[in-house]
């Protein structure tokens, strides 16, 4: 399966900075990458990114993604953005359940599962983030936590589960410069793969990304692990050269 390298820009960017970053990526992507590439940008910039992509041939294969979606279809939900709106703006992906949303916005396993369902119903691939905190890891609960988080999504989405992307992001590794070792990450990915296998006979199609301080220096080793099918990249996705290096490290 082709790997997926997805940038998570988080709450960064401006009209000018986005254009400069996209130009630098276009310059570096003159040869079609061996992996799938996506950028998940703040919702107000989706239309800009779509327009920038349409005028730069080197970026035609880069998928557009959002960072969150409402679990509701439409109506009186002030401030929320629906999956249909994201689809309208050309989104192929949406991140759901990022640990920053679980932590700062109280998102529960059930809400994250409902958001994944809303995305799937609109024809958008949800990139479902799961991962343990440092306290949970130190208490030996990593496996139990990630399995619980994924189980909620499986429960709500049934056979559609083969259409999702999973991103394993240990919370202690996000934005900290502390990456899970390739072996630590692979061990969790193998657990998730087995869980998906038990849920669907299409599990081989489900990409399991690693995220958490993946960068230009450590990407190749992480991506060489048998069950790591790509990366969800935060900080390093804001630096064109680093993001391009990670993309180049993601061959089949
Ligand atoms: P990071 O973020 O690469 O900056 O650690 C990853 C993420 O939060 O998706």
Concise structural overview:
This protein has 252 residues and is of the alpha/beta class. It has helices at residues 15-28, 46-54, 83-88, 99-104, 109-121, 134-138, 142-157, 182-199, 219-223, 240-249; strands at residues 4-8, 36-40, 63-66, 93-96, 125-130, 165-168, 208-211, 230-233.
Question: Could you characterize the architecture of this molecule?
Answer:
This protein is an alpha/beta fold and 252 residues long. Strand 2 (36-40), helix 2 and strand 3 (63-66) form a beta-alpha-beta unit. The chain has an 8-stranded parallel β-barrel, surrounded by 5 helices. The chain has helices spanning 15-28, 46-54, 83-88, 99-104, 109-121, 134-138, 142-157, 182-199, 219-223, 240-249, and strands at residues 4-8, 36-40, 63-66, 93-96, 125-130, 165-168, 208-211, 230-233. Helix 7 (142-157) runs parallel beside helix 8. It has 10 helices and 8 strands. It has a single domain (4-249), classed as Alpha-Beta Barrel (TIM Barrel). Helices cover 40% and strands 14% of the residues. The chain is globular, with a radius of gyration of 17 Å. The structure holds 2-phosphoglycolic acid. Residues 8, 169, 174-175, 211-214, 232-236 line the site of 2-phosphoglycolic acid (PGA).
């Amino acid at each position: 399966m082709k790997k997926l390298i997805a940038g998570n820009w988080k709450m960064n960017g401006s009209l000018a900075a986005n254009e400069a970053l996209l130009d630098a990526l276009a310059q570096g992507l003159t040869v079609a990458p061996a992996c799938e590439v996506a950028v998940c940008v703040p919702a107000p910039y989706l239309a800009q990114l779509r327009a920038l992509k349409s005028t730069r041939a080197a970026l035609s294969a880069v998928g557009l993604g959002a960072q969150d979606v409402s679990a509701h279809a439409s109506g009186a939900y002030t401030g929320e953005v629906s999956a249909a709106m994201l689809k309208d703006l050309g989104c192929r992906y949406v991140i759901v359940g990022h640990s920053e949303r679980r932590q700062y916005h109280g998102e529960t396993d059930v809400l994250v599962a409902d958001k994944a369902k809303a995305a799937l119903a609109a024809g958008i691939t949800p990139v479902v983030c799961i991962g343990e905190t440092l306290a949970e890891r130190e208490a030996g609960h990593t496996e139990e936590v990630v399995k619980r988080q994924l189980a909620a999504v499986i429960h709500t989405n049934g056979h559609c589960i083969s259409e999702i992307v999973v991103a394993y992001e240990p919370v202690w590794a996000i934005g900290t410069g502390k990456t899970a070792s390739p072996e630590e990450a692979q061990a969790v990915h193998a657990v998730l793969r087995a869980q998906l296998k038990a849920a669907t006979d299409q599990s081989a199609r489900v990409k399991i990304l690693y995220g958490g301080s993946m960068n230009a220096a450590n990407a190749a080793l992480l991506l060489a692990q048998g069950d790591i099918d790509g990366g969800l990249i935060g900080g390093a996705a804001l630096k064109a050269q680093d993001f391009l290096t990670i993309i180049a490290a993601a061959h089949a």
